[in-house]
């Protein structure tokens, strides 16, 4: 799919206006669906939203096009502006992109041998140097199937 052509189509169908700049995929976007750059007029979009839900992605495109068209019409294009809020509601865009389901954020799981307290962690912990904060017991590594590894 050519993203710029898709954005031009959405702009014509939903706004009745032309989109004259470029649109790009940006995998580095983590918590947002898209971004508008007033300096040069281009748009960036998170491809994960397109892969997850095409209808939601179209609403995100409408949101960014609201910024785009209002900016070039010299109207209020920021989230707090009345012009933006009214146009967004008129074209049925989303105000905020919902959070996508992400892969496991805590790949390491540790359990106290004495009290059973569980410690999910993003980074490895040296179990020889760290103890349970509740009872000072020793920690063991636990995998996803809750089987002890050591």
Automatic annotation (TrEMBL):
Gene Ontology annotations of biological process type: response to stress
GO CC, any one term: cytoplasm
Catalytic machinery residues: 64
GO terms assigned for molecular function: zinc ion binding
One Pfam family hit: Zn_ribbon_SprT
Co-factor: note: Binds 1 zinc ion.
Cofactor: Zn(2+)
Listed InterPro entries: SprT-like_domain, SprT_Zn_ribbon, Uncharacterised_SprT-like
UniProt KW keywords: Cytoplasm, Metal-binding, Zinc
Xref: HAMAP family: SprT_like
Highest rank taxon of the organism: Bacteria
Binding site for Zn(2+): 63, 67
Main subcellular location of this protein, as a coarse class: cytoplasm
The organism of origin for this protein: Streptococcus zhangguiae
Protein name in UniProt: Protein SprT-like
Compartment annotation: Cytoplasm
Residue ranges of domain SprT-like in the record: 1-142
SMART domains assigned: SprT
Protein family (similarity comment): Belongs to the SprT family.
């Amino acid at each position: 799919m050519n993203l710029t052509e898709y954005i031009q189509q959405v702009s014509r169908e939903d706004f009745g206006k032309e989109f004259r700049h470029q649109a790009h995929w940006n995998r580095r976007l983590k918590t947002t669906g898209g971004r508008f750059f007033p300096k040069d007029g281009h748009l960036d979009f998170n491809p994960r939203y397109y892969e997850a839900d095409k209808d939601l992605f179209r609403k995100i495109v409408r949101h960014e096009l609201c910024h785009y068209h209002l900016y070039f019409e010299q109207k209020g294009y920021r989230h707090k502006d009345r012009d933006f809020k009214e146009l967004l509601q008129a074209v049925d865009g989303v105000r905020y992109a919902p959070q996508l389901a992400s892969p496991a954020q805590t790949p390491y799981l540790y359990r106290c041998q004495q009290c059973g307290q569980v410690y999910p962690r993003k980074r490895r912990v040296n179990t020889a140097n760290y103890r349970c904060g509740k009872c000072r017991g020793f920690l063991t590594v636990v995998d996803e199937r809750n089987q002890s590894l050591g």
